[in-house]
Specification:
With about 950 residues, the protein is mainly beta. It has a domain of about 80 residues: Carboxypeptidase-like, regulatory domain (Immunoglobulin-like, Sandwich). The protein is about 10% helix and about 45% strand. The protein has 14 helices and 51 strands. Helix 7 runs antiparallel to helix 8 and helix 12 packs across helix 13. The radius of gyration is 31 Å and the shape is elongated. Keywords: Cell outer membrane, Membrane, Receptor, Signal, TonB box, Transmembrane, Transmembrane beta strand, Transport. Belongs to the TonB-dependent receptor family.
């Protein structure tokens, strides 16, 4: 060790005293002291950026710049200690006996996994090696070195995690199966705030989250976390942390420019751009402000897959007709051609009566949606710290989003906004947080009613059918072959239809988008407009309050953490998604949906939790137990326990096992929705929604109706009367008998092992899970006969006449128990120097279930997913690179909108970064899907190609 008094390079760890005998200590204690210095890497002897320097037991903090330099000010009495930490390096404690003009300290490189601290797994800081459940942490270094085009997309490389792309602006994470683009089972927090949309019920990706400049780290729990977080966290949790303005001051700017659609498939080559700014400043030591703003614009990925998901639905009487095109097609990315837009055409074919199923023509998604998207984000915070531990803050967030969101239908989000106000008080033991999230869907619209009403404005389904049927028969009578006859019949029926690309089409589309009344077309409501609408108009909010307190200093035998929270949704009825059930009803007992608003719909939940942690045998054994009780006034209170054990015979080897029992209350949409889905109403499962409608107790399943109709048509074509054929086949009809809606339940078992080898060069992380789902929530489509009870002859005949039945797609619980299981393995290896190889592989599967169910399971997860990355932070001076390859196996996707096989695919991402420390800047060039091998992740989703970008970041320390 060199001379301490000269403040020279100090490579050793431990406590280091810095003394200057010429300094007048008494005078210094009365003055503001300013210390400056630098922190270096003992391996490379180069300055380290983002090192945290804190005066022990105070809030006096500084962070090094890209050259490793820092300044810190304090009025603390001499002597005091500087605590110096950076992830990936062993910490230092430096004792300051006198001020100095220069302090130089060296930190020894150390594998990140050793010192990494996480909070999400237990709501308290703990080493990631000893976390009681599987958890992944993405630190700022990993984010900077990722080739992903945005920091949020780095989640795609996390072990066991999927990231679905709905739009360039909208990414949805999921883990451990039952995936969907509207994932109710995965929770996302930003600085402790749930950033979901109130009415859509899911996080809108990172639309209201941190900017590229303000993200500090991400923690991902790929499994049940409901014991501590409740509500929607039974499939996983992503917690994003932003930079602290007290430790990360300065002005930063970020620019990213890029291109996609480089192969001119579906769209010509297009540019994208993002600009961001961050400003943080500390005033008078205890006050700080932080402001972030970003603007992104680009051309979205196009959804134009024309896979027919009903290739065998043309003929009900004879499946052996061979046509070039299926007149009853239901294409993935076409709307208005679905089952409910299908008509039965009866003609004389070769002297024999024949019934054909024919769909309305509909419209392709690319003709209904503009591919131009944007995302504007802004947040501002005011922070105050007092005493040694206490801090208060107010933070405002705003996000404006364009994008395409997939639920049972496709929703085009246009100028949709989410605002968030948060107040928070934190101390060493207490955290209080309250916030409100305010949603306004702006100019958004629903593609399904848009396509339906574009067609229905021309002709009703019945009139269209008659024209089609007459033309088809006339063509066949004239000797035209069947294939050409169908083409001519459709052309005749669509003669006056609005054609995409024309001014008339654009005018009609804009008119329909502006009408907030999906029910008006053919609804029979007096005074309704002639043209039905498609506008999605939601102006809603939810309120959250939570308090946690660490009682450990009062309870000596174990650590005790407890908390309480309350959430209230206040939804303004729009007459389309949600209605006021106290409003007047029409003749079918349906609340009048004329675009007006009634009283707010209220949905709420509250809960309490407690967690104890105890260590034994010189900290080798850690037992963690938590219990949570949640109550929603619509349901009985539910108990969520979790118990876990972590055994560490030595610090480098850690074994864990856990059991969790979790409940998920139905989301707002699953409980209370009332959506006209093109003459099929999607409804929540609560009894208050069903009152007077009868779909729970007086309905037949749609699957059985299809079988029944096919059999009846076959018999009718064979010469029977329809009445006789219906009686002969009525046993095919299945009464739905839907149960009262209940919370979804999961029992989750998990074991894991995390360890380091070879002087911390190799990190191994393995886990295995087994989940049991009871009362799994899904949708089933049923038909209610008008003015009759199921089982009666009148009800049986009504199933052959669409005008004599009401169709509902109901959220309900499964009668079966579903079991899923899987395993994942992550390996991180420092090969030599700065080279690192990270590999993870995941396997997920659904156990076979011999019991039939009313709805599809929608596991929607590939069995195998593999990620491999190779990188070097500094392959040559100030230049580093990262290369990431991903592969997943083919799998079957099932959803109410579209189903089909998703082929296996692989992608390669790459980036190179040039650090310019002299001006505190970085230049990054990169590509996602470098080889431009187009793929899609789910049925009816967009086709994703290559994206190539150049980014520039500049930091000015203040």
């Amino acid at each position: 060790m060199k001379n301490k008094k000269q403040g020279n390079f100090l490579p050793k760890a431990g406590i280091i005293a810095i003394s200057f005998l010429s300094f007048n200590a008494t005078k210094a204690q009365q003055q503001l002291i300013e210390l400056s210095g630098s922190i270096k890497n003992t391996g490379t002897r180069k300055g380290l950026d983002s090192v945290k320097i804190q005066i022990e037991n105070t809030e006096d903090i500084a962070v090094t710049d890209q050259l490793g330099h820092f300044k810190i000010r304090t009025r603390v009495t001499i002597p005091f200690r500087l605590v110096i930490n950076k992830e990936g390096f062993s910490g230092q404690t430096v004792e300051v006996l006198s001020p100095s003009n220069k302090i130089t300290v060296g930190l020894n490189p150390q594998n990140t996994i050793i010192d990494a601290v996480v909070i999400s797994a237990s709501r308290v800081p703990e080493k990631i090696l000893r976390s009681p459940i599987a958890i992944e942490k993405i630190d700022i270094k990993t984010i900077r070195e990722s080739p992903a085009s945005s920091f949020y997309e780095t989640l795609e490389n996390v072990k066991g995690l999927q990231l679905l792309t709905s739009s360039l602006t909208l990414k949805i994470p999921n883990s451990r199966g039952f995936n969907s683009p509207n994932n109710f089972r995965f929770m996302q927090l930003v600085d402790g705030v749930d950033v979901q949309s109130a009415t859509l019920g899911v996080p809108l990706g990172n639309a209201i989250g941190p900017t590229e400049l303000d993200i500090q780290s991400m923690e991902v729990t790929p499994g049940a976390a409901s014991a501590l977080y409740g509500m929607n966290a039974i499939n996983g949790l992503a917690s994003l942390q932003t930079k602290d303005p007290f430790t990360s001051q300065g002005l930063s700017v970020y620019f990213r420019g890029g291109v996609n659609h480089v192969d001119n498939v579906n769209h010509k080559i297009s540019s994208l751009g993002e600009s961001a700014l961050r400003f943080a400043k500390v005033f008078n030591k205890n006050w700080a402000v932080k402001v972030n703003a970003s603007y992104f614009t680009g051309t979205d990925w196009i959804s134009n897959n024309q896979t027919d998901q009903n290739p065998g639905s043309l003929v009900t009487a004879n499946p052996n007709f061979a046509l070039l095109n299926n007149p009853a097609e239901d294409l993935w990315n076409k709307y208005g051609d679905e089952r409910n837009n299908r008509v039965a055409v009866k003609v004389d074919y070769n002297g024999k009566p024949t019934t054909f199923n024919v769909s309305r023509t509909g419209y392709l998604e690319k003709d209904l949606v503009s591919p131009e998207v944007k995302n504007i984000k802004f947040d501002a915070g005011l922070y105050y710290r007092f005493g040694d531990q206490w801090r208060a803050s107010y933070v405002y967030r705003y996000g404006l989003l364009d994008g395409t969101f997939q639920r049972g239908n496709k929703i085009r989000l246009q100028n949709a906004t989410v605002q968030n106000h948060k107040v928070e008080l934190t101390g060493k033991e207490l955290t209080f947080r309250a916030y409100v999230s305010i949603e306004n869907t702006g100019d958004s619209y629903n593609l399904k009613p848009l396509a339906d009403n574009l067609d229905l404005t021309n002709l009703s389904n019945n009139n269209w059918k008659n024209i089609f049927q007459t033309s088809l028969q006339n063509s066949m009578n004239a000797g035209v072959n069947l294939n050409d006859a169908f083409i001519l019949a459709r052309r005749e029926a669509d003669k006056n239809r609005a054609v995409p690309g024309t001014a008339a089409f654009d005018q009609l589309k804009n008119t329909i988008i502006g009408i907030n009344n999906w029910d008006s077309a053919n609804a029979g409501i007096a005074g309704a407009p002639a043209t039905g609408g498609a506008k999605l108009e939601q102006k809603s909010r939810f309120y959250q309050g939570e308090l946690t307190y660490d009682f450990s200093r009062f309870v000596k035998i174990f650590n005790l953490l407890a908390g309480i929270d309350y959430r209230l949704y206040s939804i303004t009825p729009d007459g389309n998604n949600f209605v006021d059930f106290n409003r007047p009803v029409n003749e079918r007992n349906i609340p009048l949906a004329n675009g007006s608003f009634g009283k707010d719909v209220i949905y709420q939940k509250y809960g309490v939790f407690a967690q104890i942690t105890k260590v034994f045998f010189d900290d080798k054994l850690k037992i963690n137990a938590a219990v949570r009780i949640d109550r929603n006034p619509e349901f009985e209170a539910k108990l969520n326990p979790r118990i876990s054990i972590v055994y560490s015979p030595v610090n480098q080897h850690n074994f864990r096992a856990s059991f969790q029992n979790g409940y998920r209350f139905p989301s707002l949409f699953e409980a209370l929705s009332f959506v006209n889905n093109g003459n099929v109403r999607r409804v929540g499962g609560l009894s208050k929604v069903n009152e007077g409608l009868g779909y729970l107790e007086n309905s037949y399943t749609l699957a059985s109706i299809d079988r029944f109709t096919s059999a009846v048509n076959t018999d009718v074509d064979g010469g029977k009367s329809q009445t006789q054929a219906a009686q002969d086949n009525k046993q095919l009809l299945v009464v739905a008998s839907l149960q009262k809606l209940q919370p979804e339940k999961i029992n989750s078992f998990e074991i894991g092992y995390k360890s380091v080898f070879f002087n911390n060069k190799l990190v191994l992380d393995w886990d295995f899970y087994y989940n049991i789902y009871e009362g799994f929530l899904g949708q089933v489509e049923v038909a209610v006969p008008k003015n009759s009870a199921v089982g009666s002859n009148t009800a049986v005949l009504a199933m052959l006449d669409r005008s004599k039945q009401d169709r509902y797609r109901v959220y309900t619980n499964s009668n079966s128990t579903y079991k899923s299981y899987g395993t994942s393995l992550g390996i991180r290896y420092n090969v030599t120097g700065n080279y690192n190889i990270n590999t993870n592989v995941s396997y997920n599967d659904l156990a076979s279930n011999t019991n039939s169910d009313l709805f599809i399971t929608a596991f929607n997860t590939p069995k195998w997913m593999v990620n491999v990355s190779v990188g070097n932070r500094e392959i040559v001076k100030n230049i580093g690179f990262t290369l990431v390859a991903r592969w997943q196996s083919r799998f079957m996707w099932e959803s109410p909108l579209a189903s089909g096989e998703i082929p296996a695919y692989y992608t390669i991402d790459a980036q190179a970064t040039w650090k310019i420390p002299q001006i505190n800047a970085n230049i990054k060039i990169g590509a996602t899907n470098l080889l431009n091998r187009r793929y899609f992740q789910y049925a009816a989703g967009p086709e994703i190609g290559g994206l190539y970008y150049l980014a520039f970041t500049y930091d000015l320390k203040l």
